[in-house]
Amino acid sequence: MFSFARICFKYRGAYFRRNGSNENPCSTNSFLQIFTNLSAFNDDPCGKSLHRGRFFHHSQKLDPLLFLVTASYTQFPVLAPFCFNSHYSTKAPSRSYRRRARKRLLKSCKPTLNQAQFQLALSQLPPRFTAEELCDVIAQQHDPLVCLELFHWASQQPRFRHDASTFHVTIKKLGVAKMYQEMDDVVNQLLAVPFIGSEELFNMVIYYFTEARKLTRAVNVFKHMKSRRNLNCCFRPSVRTYNILFAALLSRGSNTYINHVYMETIRCLFRQMVNDGIKPDIFSLNSMVKGYVLSLHVNDALRIFHQMGVVYDCQPNSLTYDYLIHGLCAQGRTKNAKELCQEMKTRGFIPSSKSYNSLINSLALDREIEEAVNYLWEMTDKKRSADFITYRTVLDEICRRGTIQEGMRFLQELQEKDLVDGHAYRKLLYVLEDDYGNSLSRTMGIH
Predict the structure, then answer these.
(1) Alpha-carbon torsion 150, 153, 155, 157, what sign?
(2) GO: which molecular function terms (predicted)?
(3) Helix, strand, or coil here: 413?
(4) Under a CB-based contact definition with an 8 Å cutoff, are residues 190 and 226 in contact?
(5) Predicted pLDDT at 310
(6) Is 422 exposed, middle or buried (0-12, 13-18, 19+ CB in 10 A)?
(7) Are 66 and 79 in contact (CB under 8 A)?
(8) Where are the beta strands (DSSP E) in 106-150?
């Protein structure tokens, strides 16, 4: 490879010269000329027209080795680092590089302020406007940049001070437009002003920060609300504040370990809420149940379930039962799941499709095929839809008992009741052929 590079530099002065100028032999124009001469050489195999090209001006004969070198560089540009003295990487761009490139692209594509609309909005304000009048003008604007510019312009006016209403309408406009960086700047101004704000305003700020996946900033705003120990302040955290944080923390988990880590934070927040005298509602309690189920602490979820009516004076709803049934079935506790399902139906709730699917799969894996099929028909009567995995699990367990005919009858019954479409029916039939092909061919005549 290094001798190959030395050949490039050895013949560069003799052949890679164009009209006596000191051009870069590996420039774009030189490569275009190389392709021109190579195409001429292909059209003229004898090489008679090669000396008329503008690229090769040497009086000697064409060196075959040099021609191979030139052809190699035109056909295989990956070898160019030896001649270009530059570096090429075949690796994919890193994640940080892609993030920086995306930020630069978004920054370059930012919309510009509509000056005409901004001036029109300014004309609607009286000479000495109040915070309420500014709030009304900002609320009428559809362009978030105009709203932001109005907010900043008003901040520079003498004898004017923003209040909670102007902060509220500006932050809402920016949050809806997903302009989170600009919203963050306005929130910093809000936090810098003491005794301005409201519970609704700070709850909205926390919500938009969680939507932007800025959980740290949301927690900082939450701490700002709790730091106000003055009883006259009306923006202490409420049950709504905690529910926003619960929903944000539960949405961050993608596996059991991550859910376990965030569940510790949810548990601390819940304990802090109860200690502050805030009564949890059904959303808070369901968040605890769901978090415990996702982190595989089903016994803790059952403890919260049994404390709902006794300790917190809040009755469970259908979501509570759905979370618990799914969690119990995931741990193979089918008997407890059936009891909860029966209690759920006694209270007048209808299990969700997820609960039915979990229960049917768990019963089928426990070889309780008849009961699984009964729940499947009950599920269809309640207008709940089963997924493909449920049908396949029940079909597999029916056929494993050695009765291929029952499996085919079950599959045909699904088709007759219009529970599966043609595509799903063919997939289930292919499953039977793959697993029980010989037996199926002998008994049902399938080829």
Answers:
(1) negative
(2) mRNA binding
(3) helix
(4) no
(5) 92
(6) exposed
(7) no
(8) none
Residue 59 carries which DSSP code? Answer: S
Q: Which two tokens stand for residue 394?
A: 């029940």
Q: Which two tokens stand for residue 341?
A: 């399902």
Q: Which two tokens mark 319? A: 């979501």
Tokens of 426: 């063919």
Could you give the CA distance from residue 386 to residue 64 in angstroms, rounded to a whole number? 72
- CA pair distance 139, 192, nearest whole angstrom: 24
Whole-angstrom Cα distance, residue 253 to residue 291?
Answer: 10
Report which residue type is found at 321. Y
In this structure, what token pair is assigned to residue 96? 């940080």
The region that residue 55 occupies, defined by phi over 0 for left and psi between -120 and 50 for alpha, beta otherwise, is alpha
Reported as a single tens digit per residue, the pLDDT across 393-425 is: 988 888 887 677 788 888 888 888 888 888 888
**pLDDT, mean over the chain:** 79
pLDDT at 378: 92
pTM: 0.70
Q: What pLDDT band is residue 74 in, cutting at 50, 70 and 90?
A: very low
CB burial string 35-52: b at 16+ within 10 A, e below: eebbebbeeeeeeeebee
